[in-house]
TrEMBL record:
Residue runs in coiled coils: none
Keywords, ordered alphabetically: Cell membrane, Membrane, Transmembrane, Transmembrane helix
Name of protein: VWA domain-containing protein
PROSITE patterns linked: VWFA
Signal peptide bounds: none
Organism: Neolewinella aurantiaca
Membrane-spanning intervals of the chain: 6-27, 59-78, 310-328
Domain VWFA: 91-291
Domain of life from the UniProt record: Bacteria
Amino acid sequence: MFRLQNPEYLYLLLVVPVLIGLFLWYWNRRRAALDRFADRELIEQLAPGMNRRLPWTKFILLVLAIPLLSVAMTNPQWAAERQEVKRRGIDVVVALDVSNSMLAEDVQPSRMERARYFATTLVDELVGNNIGVELFTCTSLMQAPLTTDYAFIKSVISAAGPYQISAQGTNLGEAIDRAEEAYEDESANHRALIIISDGEDHDGSAAAAASRANDAGLLIYTIGVGKQEGSFMPVELANGRRDYVRQNGGGPATTNADPATLEAIASAGGGSYFPLSGDSKNLAEAIRAKVDRIEKQEFESQSFSTYDSYFYWFLAPAILLLLFEFALGRKDRKRAAELEI
């Protein structure tokens, strides 16, 4: 199979007719001026080193070199070998808690910021798998379907926040049930759910939901962010003033991380619980090691051709023509200089 790697350089061929037109115009103007100056025999006596054929020869060499250079720059290639590449991996849904409790600043800069940063790091570690993003509070939203467009996945994660789901509270059981709907039927036993949350759960059905999902072939890993001590949840008001999420009575509400709930979910889901308290990179690598143990499925098979380049077959003669054009006429100029002496 033949191809041109950079076909846009063929536009340089348009220069050739332009140069031919300019040269013919210049040559006619030059010949007319010489005829007005003197007849040809007298001109030969006045300019003994002048070669009337030389400008044409040099111009033809230049015109021949330009198409060769143009084709060389396109880098003509011929397929040398065809290879088939198979991509294997699993389906991974990253479920990110965006409830108001994630605004707490008991970890710096906040639970939400730490969770987003870790989720982005995790995506980089899980490259090669299909990844989706679910946001949840008391309800759930599949914000990004399973895909290999990792730049899109990371943009969804970076924009995640409580403002995206108006209903607040936390229902981890609902998040697990909704995540199951994102997987393809044929991906059973080739799928994982990674929940990033502070563990607050207002429903209490998460462990049972995790057990049902595990029976259907889903492994669940939980990442706990935040401290168990009570913490306020700061918010920015429309006027720019900083306030706190408040209880019905008007006082600031507090939130407590609940790692025990996340541990119970991971245990029921056949996975593991990890606290988000150390280096995000190391934790992401640990989770990747767990995910890599899951049996992978073949997503797609793509064929690629390797190509050999043949630009030098055109570049070499072009350079020779240009060198010959540059050297041509030096003998005539030297002879003319000797006659003048």
